[in-house]
From TrEMBL:
It comes from Cryptolaemus montrouzieri. PROSITE patterns: FBOX (PS50181). Gene3D superfamilies: 1.20.1280.50, 3.40.1000.30. Residues 213-259 form the F-box domain. This is F-box domain-containing protein.
Length: 303
């Protein structure tokens, strides 16, 4: 009987050992399968994207201890690479603007920006294979802000600007030197810069060459007006403020007549301009909001 008890105990110990080894092996498999962060926006303090490490290495090779502004410009350079641009100095090496991670890792280490003086930087890009359209990105430090201007040679009216608060991307406040593990908000930086600079520039170059880029602006107008059927008028006002093309759509008198009829069940004079109709829409909308608040307030008083 005692032997049976001992053997049963040994069996439990062996099973427990096997289970713990299985758990460990599963953890090892999970660890092996964790994907390397590819983009800057995937930054985590525990796992740095290789591109971020390469930015710091490029400064180290030049014997530079980068300031926060230097490092932020390096991040903007990387974001342009992620969007398919390459430094102008490398234009003869690449023929497509698709996403290529190995190319990004290689080019991040290439010192493609020139520091004109202590507070300004100059970067030049091309979008292969469209080599005649050079995108010039000028970064100017003003206090704790970085003003970024992008213009495209040989395309008129392509000028995009964004202002970045340098300290908002670091956790150690006003300390001047950049430290990689003190960075933060890189997803916000990536989204803002790509939406306001990289994407509009790429879109302009592709459209100039008769190529489509997957975005709302390339949809036929009748489809966009169809989408408007499901959007509130106040959101349409915001929507039509994001580009010149969309802004021209708000000039349609019929659009505002239909919105007022749809949202408020009201008809308006046919002689009103689009500006007067927009004001009328806003006036009715605010009036209804006030009435709702007043009605709910009276209801609370009765209760």
């Amino acid at each position: 009987m005692a032997e049976c008890v001992v053997s049963e105990a040994n069996k439990n110990i062996i099973d427990s050992s096997n289970q713990s080894s299985d758990v460990q092996s599963c953890q090892d498999i999970k660890t092996e399968k964790v994907m390397e962060p590819l983009l800057l926006e995937d930054f985590q303090r525990s796992r740095f994207p290789t591109t971020l490490k390469n930015i710091m290495k490029s400064f180290e090779k030049q014997g530079i201890q980068p300031s926060k502004c230097d490092f932020l410009v390096g991040c903007l350079y990387t974001l342009m690479l992620e969007y398919g641009f390459i430094p102008q100095e490398k234009e003869s090496f690449y023929n497509d603007c698709g996403f290529n991670y190995s190319r990004i890792k290689d080019l991040v280490s290439f010192p493609a920006w020139k520091k004109s003086d202590e507070n300004s930087y100059s970067l030049s890009f091309i979008l292969p294979p469209h080599h005649i359209y050079t995108c010039k990105v000028i970064c100017i430090k003003m206090g704790d802000d970085l003003i970024v201007n992008a213009i495209v040679k040989n395309i008129e009216d392509v000028h995009h600007t964004i202002m970045l608060d340098i300290l908002s991307y670091f956790t150690d406040g006003a300390h001047q030197k950049a430290c990689m593990d003190k960075m933060q908000n890189l997803r916000s930086l990536s989204t803002s810069f790509k939406n306001q600079v990289a994407f509009p520039v790429k879109h302009a170059i592709l459209r100039t060459n008769g190529l489509r880029h997957p975005c709302l602006e390339d949809l036929p107008l009748e489809i966009i007006f169809y989408i408007f059927k499901y959007i509130h008028g106040t959101d349409i006002i915001k929507f039509t403020a994001i580009s010149k093309q969309f802004h021209s759509m708000r000039l349609e008198v019929k659009l505002w007549e239909n919105l007022i009829l749809r949202d408020f069940k009201c008809t308006v004079k046919k002689t009103l301009s689009y500006e007067e109709l927009m004001k009328e829409y806003g006036y009715i909308y605010r009036s209804q909001l006030r009435n709702r608040r007043h009605g709910s307030w009276k209801k609370r008083m009765v209760l």
